[in-house]
Structure formats: C-alpha cells, structure tokens
Write a structure and sequence with these properties.
Layout: E1 3-7, H1 16-30, H2 39-47, E2 51-56, E3 59-69, E4 74-82, H3 91-106, E5 111-116, H4 119-128, E6 131-133, H5 142-146, H6 154-159, E7 168-172, H7 188-208
Parallel strand pairs: 4-5
Antiparallel strand pairs: 1-2, 2-3, 3-4, 5-7, 6-7
Helix pairs in contact: 1-2, 3-4
InterPro entries: Acyl_CoA_acyltransferase, GNAT_dom
Protein name: GNAT family N-acetyltransferase
Organism: Flavobacterium potami
C-alpha cells in the first residue's frame, strides 16, 4: 500500500465531507470536545494551499490544515485526523511532521501553537519541539477562540476568560534555539495525571454551583 502526503488542491474537494465526518466521529468515540468544521471551510483551506492530505491509492487516509492568526504572528495546525482504516501505521505523526515543516517554510516568522486534550498529539508536538505553555502565550485573536464555540467544553473556556480549559496549550517558537532531541521531552504519565487533576478541578467547580 502506497500512501502519499501532499499539499491540497481543488481536486481534493471531493474528500471534504468525508474529512469532516471522520473528525466528528473520532471525537465522539474519544468522548472529547471538538470545534466542528464544515466541508466549505475545509475546501477553502484546500484551495488556499493551507492543508495537506494523505492518500492511499487515491483514497482519503489522513488530513491536517493550517490557520494563521494576528497577521501571521501565530500559526496553528487543526483538524489532524487519520481515517480508521489507516490507523496504527504512524500516519498521524507523518502528517503532522509534514505540515510542521511546510508551515516553517510558508510562515517562517510565525510561532506554531496548538491546544489539545489528546495525549498522542501532545507526544507528537513534544517530539517536534513544542513546549506546554499557558494560554496567555497563545494568540489573543478572538476569532481563534470563537472557533471553540462548538466544543462541549466551551462554557469552561468562557468561565476562565480564555485563560484555561481542559485542553493543554503547546507552542513552538522558531526564534528559540532548538535542541535535538527536543529539550521538552514528553512524559505521558505526568501529562495524563495533570489532565485528570484539571478535569477534577473543573468538575468540582461545576458541582459547587448545585450545592
């Protein structure tokens, strides 16, 4: 099986609906919140060359797109997804690495960031040189945070004035001198424990309103 990862073009528009459906179904299975995407939005990213798609013998295998904020000061990778038929092949890491390298060329001065609840994505980001940061180090562009409105955790984000949520913020600054391997090694046990603590704190906060 040959899998290729390429920058998207209009010829890939036909996969937009399948990409959206796969992203949503994956989030439901994991029981996590997610910002919903529309086929039209995915197609816009495709036509602008701000996305990459993995194809296996002409079939959709994986996808990720790029968003820029504050006039290119920040860049985020969103919608990273692998079709169920092609999971457990290390494809998510390959797509993320390709998009990461592509972003550095397309937006050389931008800080690359992301917010996620997924430990697998945190691990990939860490291996690329991202570091965990508070939300205050991420973009303040309201349109970015508005994209979280369809996430089930949005009320939590609102209650914390966009400063904290169940997601973990991660940032790669190209101006920082990077080390190989990255100086921010991923510790799954520690991050998993922190994630559970954060969830418990938010849950106690919510329950306190009903006591």
């Amino acid at each position: 099986m040959k899998i290729s990862i390429v920058v998207t073009q209009e010829e890939h528009f036909k996969f937009a609906q399948e990409i959206c459906d796969t992203i949503e179904s994956s989030a439901l299975l994991r029981g996590t919140g997610i910002a919903k995407r529309t086929p039209e939005y995915i197609q816009k990213k495709m036509s602008n060359g701000d996305a990459m798609i993995a194809l296996a013998d002409g079939k959709f295998a994986g996808f990720c797109y790029i968003e820029s904020w504050e006039h290119g000061k920040f860049v985020a990778h969103s919608g990273l997804i692998v079709h169920p038929d092609y999971r457990s092949l290390g494809l998510a890491k390959k797509i993320k690495s390709k998009v990461f390298d592509y972003s550095l060329k397309r937006y050389p001065d931008a800080k690359i960031f992301g917010i996620t609840t997924g430990l697998a994505v945190m691990k990939i980001n860490s291996e690329l040189g991202y570091k965990p940061v508070p939300f205050s180090e991420l973009t303040t562009d309201p349109s970015f945070w508005a994209g979280c409105k369809t996430c089930t955790n949005f009320p939590i984000l609102q209650s914390k004035e966009n400063k904290m949520c169940l997601c973990t913020g991660m940032l790669y600054d190209p101006k920082e001198k990077q080390k190989n391997p990255p100086r921010h090694p991923f510790n799954e046990a520690v991050l998993s424990r922190l994630k559970k603590i954060k969830q418990a704190l938010f849950l106690n906060k919510i329950l306190s309103f009903f006591v």
